[in-house]
Amino acid sequence: MTKLMKECESLEMYAIGGLDGKERVAFERHLSSCPACTAGLEELTAIVDLLPMASNPVSPPEGMRA
To answer: Which helix (H) or strand (E) holds 28?
Structure first.
């Protein structure tokens, strides 16, 4: 596996905020020079932004605050 392929594998985790600080900075550096990841991130961001609307709201169970 090439270094580029390995860096591209972080795209999904980056899109959902799943990278730690060091990983995030490294991926952002990669992102600035990878058109494929830049385009992929735009697509994933649009999908991730819709996820909260994909489920029905629920009330928390009684006593949960306690």
So the answer is: helix 21-31
Q: What's the predicted TM-score (pTM) here?
A: 0.71
User: Do residues 7 and 29 touch, judged by C-beta distance below 8 A?
Assistant: no
What is the mean pLDDT of each successive set of 10 residues along the chain, which is 66 residues long?
75 94 94 95 92 85 81
Q: Return d(Cα 32, Cα 14) in angstroms, integer.
A: 14
Cβ proximity of 23 and 15 under 8 Å? no
Contact 19, 10 (CB under 8 A): yes
Cα 66 from Cα 63, distance rounded (Å): 5
